[in-house]
Design brief:
Layout: E1 9-13, H1 23-37, E2 41-46, H2 53-56, E3 64-67, H3 71-75, H4 85-94, E4 99-103, H5 105-118, E5 122-125, H6 143-157, E6 161-164, H7 167-175, E7 183-185, H8 202-207, E8 215-219, H9 229-238, E9 244-248, H10 259-271, E10 278-279, H11 287-295, E11 299-302, H12 311-318, E12 323-326, E13 341-344, H13 349-361, H14 363-380, H15 383-399
Parallel strand pairs: 1-2, 1-4, 2-3, 4-5, 5-6, 6-7, 8-9, 8-11, 9-10, 11-12, 12-13
Length: 400
């Protein structure tokens, strides 16, 4: 296909999209936002049919979002293709794409059917972080059953290029049978229009009851098992007498399928009498609001079992704030221990408590690590390079 003077049409296919929280959702949003500024005609086909538009009109400037029923249920394996495919296909067709970029395995499968039939290129990205047992979809108790499905899907999707966001994801992709020749990768970066240190707002701190002499810790994470929020709670139980408050940024958002874990975390907070120390806002913060929340903090904690990368850590660091993170895949590509943040062994709540106490007491160390955290973003995690990589790959595929 030869490029014309008409805007190129890109359809991003994903089962969830902001205002839902999550690193994957944020990256899709950033592609839609910044590629539309490069002249692409962007459509996002996604799920979540609730009336979010009144909260997101400013966010969706420059591109269109098409929300269809049952997309999330299909992507979690709760309903079969028969109940979802026809409307999905017709919605994609309505966007008249020159190229499709599908995110995660089941959306990738749907996108591949359309792309093959319409003879257009397909780019694939998955944000499902593989766990230590090798699980990616996290839908089956038996690891071998899940691996069999993943190997099947990765072949059936038949993408031209797989784009990913970290060296960890590159290695994971090769392990599940992706050809090295089809893999491209680039670190993403946080949105500089949303995340910056100049947004520090003492009024926001006070709205949460944080006193001037208290330290505010932000946890840039959803309440799901992989984030290991219980590790932080155990640490805070040790430190309950220190002048500190913690805010979990996902607020009142309960991710479907993880209601039991959310309730477990609430129960653990109450059992330790930490409900005035560990705060879970009732509201769900949208993309634009997260920047102000992060900038209001003194430092962040991300106690994940494993991360594909850790966009939340990058967003906090863009605000000039250091991160205490678990010494796990993904996060080790971001955090340099005792340089731009601190690392602790996965699940070791005593080590985490020691790090938290250190940063509470040592203001100079906090500030120095915060400066280096911002320098790390400026040097290594550039959003412009991430967007340009996608722009180049899309155009090359359309020209073939």
């Amino acid at each position: 296909m030869i490029l014309s003077n008409q805007p190129l049409r890109l359809t991003l296919l994903a089962h969830s999209f902001p205002p839902d929280n999550g690193g994957g959702e944020m990256l899709i949003y950033l592609l839609a936002k910044y590629l539309s500024r490069k002249g692409w005609k962007i459509s996002v086909v996604t799920g979540n049919t609730k009336d979010y538009l009144k909260n997101c009109k400013k966010l969706y400037k420059g591109f269109k979002v098409f929300r269809i029923p049952l997309f999330e249920e299909f992507s979690r394996g709760e309903i079969g293709i028969k109940y979802f495919f026809e409307q999905a296909y017709q919605t994609i067709k309505k966007t008249s794409p020159d190229i499709i970029h599908a995110f995660n395995f089941y959306p990738g499968y749907i996108g591949s059917i359309y792309a093959r039939h319409e003879k257009i290129p397909l780019v694939f990205t998955y944000h499902n972080t593989p766990l230590n047992d090798g699980k990616i979809l996290k839908m089956f108790s038996n690891v071998e059953v899940e691996k069999a499905l993943v190997y099947h899907l990765i072949k059936e999707i038949r993408f031209q290029i797989l784009i990913t966001v970290s060296q960890y994801f590159v290695n994971a992709s090769l392990e599940i049978g992706v050809s090295k020749d089809t893999v491209r990768w680039c670190y993403p970066g946080p949105d500089p229009e949303i995340f910056h240190s100049s947004d520090k707002d003492l009024r926001l701190r006070r709205s949460f009851g944080v006193k001037d002499e208290e330290i505010l810790i932000i946890v840039p994470a959803r309440i799901v098992p992989r984030k290991s929020i219980e590790t932080l709670i155990e640490s805070m139980n040790i430190l309950k007498n220190l002048p500190v408050k913690v805010i979990i940024s996902s607020g009142g958002f309960i991710q479907p399928g993880f209601e039991a874990y959310y309730n477990k975390i609430i129960k653990l907070i109450n059992t330790y009498g930490l409900s005035k120390k560990i705060l879970i806002p009732i509201c769900q913060y949208n993309v634009a609001q997260l920047g102000k929340l992060y900038a209001a903090a003194d430092f962040a904690v991300l106690p994940s079992i494993i991360e594909g990368l850790g966009l939340g850590a990058l967003e906090v660091m863009q605000c000039g704030i250091p991160v205490i993170a678990s010494d796990t895949e993904g996060l080790k590509e971001i955090i340099e221990n005792k340089i731009n943040g601190l690392l602790f062994p996965v699940g070791d709540f005593r080590a985490l408590a020691n790090h938290i106490e250190f940063l509470i007491i040592n203001k100079k160390a906090r500030q120095k690590m915060g400066v280096r955290a911002k320098e790390t973003i400026d040097r290594k995690f550039k959003l412009s390079e991430f967007v340009n990589l996608h722009d180049t790959i899309y155009k090359e595929l359309i020209q073939k």
